[in-house]
Design a protein that fits this description.
CATH architecture of the largest domain: 3-Layer(aba) Sandwich
Number of strands: 9
Shape: elongated
CATH class of the largest domain: Alpha Beta
CATH superfamily of the largest domain: TPP-binding domain
Strand order of the largest sheet: 3-2-1-7-8-9
Number of domains: 2
Strand content: 15-25%
CATH topology of the largest domain: Rossmann fold
Number of helices: 9
Largest sheet: 6 strands, parallel
Radius of gyration: 18 Å
């Protein structure tokens, strides 16, 4: 089977009711990025940051994967699918996708404040544990912090993502502004002869000389069109 690599962003989960950060009325309008998504913000007010992500976790209990997530998971019947996501929610997992690389961390996990990328101190939270409090400590004695890659921090999973992108036979971009690096730079690692699809209802400016097939639809309708294209163009399976 061919290797299908998908880069998904906030638009993938927006139809499920997950608030986006960048659109008007999004989370950045309510919470300045400096306060809730930087190491400096966490140091200045850890309780504010911890509670912010507590609220994000609670939101997961009230949303479910949308048809776009489900259609993407179904593609595993015909392709070796790798989902590289900028999203921190667990909707891809809940939809049934089995190989997911989270570039920006995972909302349902917490980690050490001292060693955030040490897997020995990463804990998966059950829904009953979604409320993290000041005083909840990692095994190294530091406060449990959200397992999120904040602005200004390195992106540990980017090299793994690049490895899969370089082996892609088909590359699909869904619901991302292509403004956040290093994720946006993954397109530069797609082999030149590989077909690229971009699914987004809005115009996405991609500074790239290569040919890109644009589907100007939301995640669910866009994924339906993509699966129809695959079904009618046999070259994608050969």
């Amino acid at each position: 089977m061919k290797n299908l690599v998908v880069l998904s962003g906030a638009g993938m989960s927006a139809e499920s009711g997950i608030s986006t950060f960048r659109d008007a009325g999004g989370l950045w309008d309510k919470y300045p990025v400096e306060q809730v998504a930087t190491p400096e913000g966490y140091i200045a007010n850890p309780e504010l940051v911890i509670n912010f992500y507590n609220e994000r976790r609670k939101q997961l209990l009230n949303v479910k994967p949308n048809p776009g997530h489900l259609l993407l998971a179904e593609l595993e019947q015909n392709f070796n699918v790798t989902v590289v996501t900028q999203n921190i929610d667990n909707l891809h997992e809940r939809a049934g996708s089995s190989h997911i690389i989270h570039l920006h961390g995972e909302l349902t996990k917490v980690c050490s404040s001292l060693h955030p990328n040490d897997s020995a101190y990463v804990k998966e939270l059950d829904p009953g544990e979604f409320e993290v409090k000041i005083g909840d400590l990692a095994p190294d004695g530091s406060q449990f912090r959200p397992f999120i890659v904040w602005f200004g921090e390195a992106v540990p999973m980017i090299d793994k993502a690049i490895d899969y992108v370089e082996q892609a036979d088909i590359f699909v971009i869904i619901g991302t502004s292509m403004n956040v690096y290093p994720a946006a730079g993954l397109l530069n690692y797609v082999p030149r002869d590989v077909p690229v699809f971009l699914i987004d209802p809005k115009e996405v400016k991609v500074n790239e000389s290569r040919s890109i097939r644009v589907i100007r639809k939301g995640a669910s309708d866009g994924m339906k069109e993509l699966t129809d294209i695959f079904a009618h163009e046999s070259t994608f399976f050969s």
